[in-house]
Design goal:
Strand order of the largest sheet of chain B: 2-5-8-1-9
Number of domains of chain B: 2
Number of helices of chain A: 19
GO molecular function, one term (chain B): ATP hydrolysis activity
CATH class of the largest domain in chain A: Alpha Beta
Order of helices and strands of chain A: HHHHHHHHHHHHEHEEHEEHHEHEHEH
Oligomer: heterodimer
Number of strands of chain A: 8
Pfam family, one (chain B): AAA_5
Radius of gyration of chain B: 24 Å
InterPro entries (chain B): AAA+_ATPase, ATPase_dyneun-rel_AAA, CbbQ/NirQ/NorQ/GpvN, P-loop_NTPase
Protein name (chain B): MoxR family ATPase
CATH class of the largest domain in chain B: Alpha Beta
CATH architecture of the largest domain in chain A: 3-Layer(aba) Sandwich
Helix content of chain B: 40-55%
Shape of chain B: elongated
Distance between the termini of chain B: 61 Å
Domain AAA+ ATPase (chain B): 40-205
Strand content of chain B: 5-15%
CATH topology of the largest domain in chain B: Rossmann fold
CATH superfamily of the largest domain in chain B: P-loop containing nucleotide triphosphate hydrolases
Chain lengths: 453, 292
């Protein structure tokens, strides 16, 4: 395979992962590489990054693919001499010996050594020989389990504490170092599999979607943190965009009186037209969120985003429900800390649950009973949830009454459209009253919120 | 194409040294992108959080290469007349009045649309200069979409057509640096024509070097403590993470207050320099276990 083939395959893989790499950008990359040469791997990587990656959040995807297509090294990475000299490749002693070396390296935080050790760990403890064709023969999972990372972390934290770190700091740094080592091991396992099967096979599986395209329902704990970090910048971007668009449409109808008045100075000829300023139209929003288990993340994110954009709306009232209804508007104070608000919201979930089984019908009837005054001709109703109501009474009439009293009403469903109506989902029946939209990731959510404001 | 590279940088390593000489500590990717921008004669789009040295990089390139900086500050409502060129109407009017009746219309017409009455704005200025020029287009995300279209035309060909004077092409391409805070997504077309550099918060060692070079007289120990605290703050979920500019401000504050040891109390007292939201300060006090 020539270098050019590899280059073109790499571009293809980037496109496959959703990076819009154009022909001219590919040519730029080639010109740039012609200038800097292929001697230095980091420079090659940076040259590719500078010419092909035009968005900061795509960098992680790029890095992952670059490691697959231009691996740091080829082969097993274990010293062949040591193997020949009869050092046991695997076994209790080998494991103990390796673990102690690894613990030392972790304590010294030697990145280069850790990288070598990661390669060695996969080579010695992550091999799964003799598996059928089509199954990967290397596993980072096996390697990490053999090394028992929890014990390693505990040992490292203890060591750091003896070295004069405070308990809290040691725990933080220790966990981070072991996590980084696990990352290195995973990367090395991917590299080996890519070497055996060709990178295009693994590129499809190993590359995770960017945070904007990540499904709310499939978010892991670390993803949730990343998502939360995105809310504030996203809200700021949306606010800028909205303000710009409002400005562009600021001019209202012709103001005849002022036009005539100003035409006096030009001898009665209306040279300059005067316009009435347009009254800014602000939506009043009433949000009802299903906060039961599976969809609670989605609901809280939407709430946080809406409240981060509060200036763009006239008034916002928020309610959460499982089978009870509970107003949460007071939890959102202007300028309050996001993390605290999130924690309080999660705590408040218990007020929204009585039996703990989602019951949309009951929630809607209760809303009509207690908070019907929240909806008026100026307000928009927004319902968040997967419409899975445990086969209970749907209270269609209550919902219809709510939709009728509001100016607009929308329903956001975090499930994939193909799963609607499966099982206890009542998407169609509710969807016939209130327009239901699929909203699975940050991109879809921000588009919707933008249209709403 | 690489024939005219001599006026900018000859290699990424040279870029690091020359930028370092003028007080800008560039990391590998910054140096490489700067070098490529000169060598490929392509504009660089720099994105990143506020206060990490985006604009400063353009200024440093200017100082390092002995070029001149032409700056176009973007804002909402920026138009062609402010970015490219404008005719000096008042002067033209004076010229017509001064000519009196003796002169024929044809002559006057040719006369008032000459160089003398042309007001060049940053884009045209940068194109017409024959000496090395760095064109800084600052905060390009603040402009309207129409200006992006104008930039596309100028940045791809480096020529401008003025109907009355004809086409003006650049004799020497300026090195173009665009900066953006990413408040708005720029168009794909503009991005495609640019090299891209994402400047992020630096690692601890680099940041310490930067702070020490910007604030002479700062004790190395204090710098180390300061960088550690700033690094810790960036890990928290804050509304606005402190950037290099804030670190430098903080260092200056410490010098001014003659604080020689960054104790928890000192951190708590001066936290307002680094964090600009009250909820961020509260969170930091809580997470760092500071007493107020």
């Amino acid at each position: 395979m020539t270098l050019l083939d590899r280059h073109i395959e790499f571009l293809e893989a980037l496109r496959g992962a959703g990076l819009p790499v154009s022909l001219s950008e590919g040519l730029d990359a080639v010109t740039a590489l012609g200038l800097i040469g292929w001697n230095d791997r980091t420079q090659v990587k940076e040259a590719y990054a500078a010419t092909l990656v035009k968005r900061a959040n795509q960098r992680a995807t790029f890095d992952g693919l670059f490691e697959l297509y231009f691996p740091r090294m080829v082969g097993s990475g274990v010293d062949a001499d040591a193997e020949a000299a009869g050092v046991a490749k695997d076994g209790p002693e080998a494991l103990a010996e390796f673990t102690s070396r690894l613990a030392e390296a972790l304590e010294a935080d030697d990145v280069e050594l850790l990288r070598q050790l990661a390669a060695e760990a996969v080579a010695r403890f992550g091999a799964m020989p003799g598996r059928g064709p089509g199954l990967s023969s290397w596993s980072s999972y096996t390697a990490l389990r053999r090394l028992s990372t929890d014990e390693l972390t505990a040992r490292l934290i203890e060591g750091l504490q003896q070295g004069g770190w405070t308990e809290e700091e040691a725990a933080r740094v220790g966990t981070r170092r072991v996590d980084r080592f696990s990352g290195l091991v995973e990367a090395d396992a991917r590299r080996r599999i890519a070497e055996e099967k060709g990178p295009e096979q693994i590129a499809k599986i190993a590359v995770r979607p960017t945070i904007e395209k990540l499904d709310f329902l499939h978010a892991r704990r670390t993803d949730l943190e990343a998502l939360r970090r995105e809310i504030y910048p996203l809200a700021r971007r949306l606010a800028t965009r909205l303000t710009q668009e409002h400005h562009a449409r600021r001019r209202g109808a012709v103001d005849l009186r002022r036009t005539l008045r100003s035409s006096m100075s030009t001898g009665g000829v209306p040279v300059d037209l005067r316009f009435r300023p347009k009254r800014p139209h602000r939506t009043e929003l009433v949000i009802l969120c299903d906060v039961s288990g599976s969809v609670s993340n989605f609901a809280t994110f939407t709430l946080m985003l809406v409240f981060a954009l509060r200036e763009q709306f006239g008034k916002v009232r928020a309610f959460t429900f499982v089978d009870e209804i509970h107003e949460v508007t007071s939890y959102f104070r202007p300028g309050a800390d996001l993390v605290d608000t999130m924690t309080e919201l999660t705590k408040a979930t218990e007020h929204a649950a009585r039996m703990g089984r989602t019951n949309y019908g009951r929630a809607f009837s209760l809303f009509q009973e207690r908070h019907a005054d929240a909806l008026g001709p100026k307000s928009s109703l927004l319902i968040l949830g997967d419409a899975r109501s445990n086969y209970s009474d749907l209270a269609v009439d209550s919902l219809r009454a709510m939709a009728d009293s509001a100016r607009h009403s929308y329903w956001l469903n975090p499930e994939v459209r193909t799963q609607w109506d499966a099982g206890d989902s009542e998407a169609t029946r509710y969807g016939s009253i209130i327009e239901m939209r699929e909203c699975r990731n940050l991109t879809q959510l921000s588009e919707f919120v933008h249209d709403l404001a | 194409m690489p024939s005219r590279t001599s006026s900018w940088f000859s290699s990424p390593t040279e870029a690091v040294t020359r930028l370092g000489d003028v007080g800008y500590l560039a990391d590998d990717s910054t140096a490489l992108t700067t070098y490529l921008a000169g060598a490929l004669e392509k504009p660089v789009l720099i994105e990143g959080p506020a206060g990490v040295g985006k604009t400063e990089l353009a200024k440093a390139i200017t100082r390092a290469t002995g070029a001149e900086l032409v700056r176009l500050q973007c804002y909402e409502g920026l138009d062609e007349a402010r970015a490219l060129y404008e005719w000096n109407y008042k002067k033209q009017l004076l010229r017509i009045q001064a000519a009196g009746d003796g002169q024929a219309w044809e002559e006057t017409h040719d006369d008032i649309f000459s160089e003398e009455f042309l007001l060049t704005r940053p884009l045209l200025t940068a194109i017409r200069r024959s000496e090395p020029t760095v064109l800084l287009i600052d905060e390009v995300d603040k402009t309207d979409v129409e200006v992006e279209g104008l930039l596309l035309e100028v940045l791809s060909d480096f020529q401008v057509t003025i109907p009355e004077l004809g086409t003006m092409a650049s004799t020497r391409r300026p090195l173009v640096v665009l900066t953006s805070n990413a408040t708005r997504e720029l168009s794909e077309a503009l991005k495609r024509r640019c090299l891209y550099l994402h400047l992020d918060y630096p690692d601890a060692d680099r940041e310490r070097e930067i702070v020490l070079s910007q604030v002479p007289g700062l004790d190395d120990k204090v710098a180390r403590q300061l960088v550690a605290v700033v690094g810790r703050l960036r890990e928290l979920e804050l509304k606005k993470s402190p950037s290099i500019a804030e670190s430098v401000d903080w260092a200056r504050t410490l010098i001014a207050l003659e604080i020689t040891d960054l104790s928890d109390k000192a951190v708590a007292d001066t936290l307002g320099v680094v964090l600009k939201h009250s909820s961020d300060v509260d969170r930091a006090v809580r997470e760092l276990r500071l007493k107020r």
